[in-house]
Amino acid sequence: MTDLPIAAVTRVAKNSGAERVGGDASELLVQKTEQYIASLVKEAVKLAAHAGRKTLKEEDIEMAAEKLV
Length: 69
Description:
mainly alpha
């Protein structure tokens, strides 16, 4: 069971240029997207904690995203 809706991820893929997306590909896209989000949040949480905060801010997400690229 995933947290993200498969249809929404498939729509993003189509809006990004995929003409068609198979069911197995959609499921894998959801899994990989959720893994990326989890990694991004874990890194952002470290950055927020380093700044003495519990609340994630836009800057934490931006910096975390830069580190993951």
